[in-house]
Amino acid sequence: VIDRAFTGCSTLILIGDPKQAIYAFRGGDIVTYLEAAETAGEKRTLVTNWRSDAALVDRLQVVLEGAQLGDPRIVVHQVEARHPGSRLAGAPCSDPFRLRVVSRESFRRRGVQTVPIDDLREHIGKDLAADIGALLNSRATFDGRRIVAGDIAVIVEKHRDGHACFKALTEAGIQAVHTGDSDVFESQAAADWLALLEAFDQPHRAGVVRAAASTMFFGRTAIDLAEGGDALTDEIAETLREWAGHARDCGVAAVFEAAQLQGMGGRVLSWQGGERHMTDLAHVTQLLQDVAHREHYNLPALRDWLRRQREEKGGAAERSRRLDSDAGAVQVLTVWAAKGLQY
Fold first, then answer.
1. Which of 182, 176, 179 lies closest to 152, judged by CA?
2. Confidence tier at 48 by pLDDT (50, 70, 90)
3. Residue 342, domain member (yes or no)
């Protein structure tokens, strides 16, 4: 449509983002992208890396320059770095680009004997953790500031690789966070939101109310419900009616805030894995708020939408669980979850 409307008739400026165009699961169409680029009478591209140090860029050029990335028209070109030299100082190893070689002898294998992938994953994770531990204990600096765990990211290809690295880091006493690229709609937070939305629609049903009472929003245990009896159930039902009113008037984000005012945050954060739960709750709340506003959903429609999301599997980026905390922790994630120029 754009080609027919503008090509040959007026000046047309196309700005491409190949990092998005290559992702088929995001609807990217690399062929269309390349064909559009070929129609240009004049082409300009970025020739400066503004993020990485020259020491790293130069070494990567030795390995990658001229490489075709899936298509003869996609080639790694020469680029310059904005930052000369290296800003890393005082590290046990100052080389900005390293390849680690693992010998079969390390696994008591000889000749062409295959090393089991699980053994390799464990070895790589431990080797990585030792390397990161040495860096953090070295008082090394980057751009004049002491390096901390939060400055480091481990980017892997597969989920299992990430789990192995995360396990090795935590066993080495290094704080780390890992999303695992798991689906937030499969989390306990999503299950709790669904139970709450069910209760908003049926606050007169004791069983539904008690199910909502056991969610993170209320934090009631089976013992609490047994000892509290009908009085506690009626009390929670009244709160549910009040929160449902907030949701109708201001959106479900108001329910999240109301629960916070009643102590949900402090209670959940006191649990093991509480930070993970709170991050998921906030994430699901945002997704519910956004879709309700965009589609003009009432509460029953929003409940049905959430149920469908939990039953279906999707690859949308917004479904991926967020890091529960990146403060002072090594981030472990897949290359698919790493966004563009994030690192």
1. 176
2. very high
3. no
pLDDT over threshold 90, residue 125: yes
Q: Distance between CA atoms of 279 and 274, rounded to whole angstroms?
A: 9
Specify whether the CB–CB gap between 239 and 220 falls below 8 A.
no
Q: Which two tokens stand for residue 323?
A: 């890091």
pLDDT of residue 40: 82
Measured between alpha carbons, how far is residue 235 from residues 205, 212, 213, 284 in Å? Answer: 13, 12, 10, 26
pLDDT digits (tens, 9 = 90+) for 58-95: 999 999 999 998 788 889 999 999 999 999 999 999 89
| 0.90 exceeded by pTM | no
- The Cα–Cα gap between 331 and 78 comes to 30
User: 24-27: long-range contacts (C-beta < 8 A, 24 or more apart)?
Assistant: 25/315, 26/317
Q: Is residue 341 part of a domain?
A: no
Is a pLDDT exceeding 80 seen at residue 286? yes
Asked whether residue 303 falls in the same domain as residue 201, the answer is yes
Cα 38–40–41 angle (5° rounding)? 125
Average per-residue pLDDT in the chain? 88
State whether 92 and 175 are in the same domain: yes
Complete edge-to-edge strand list for the sheet that includes strand 141-142: 88-89, 141-142, 145-146
Residue 226 domain boundaries: 184-319
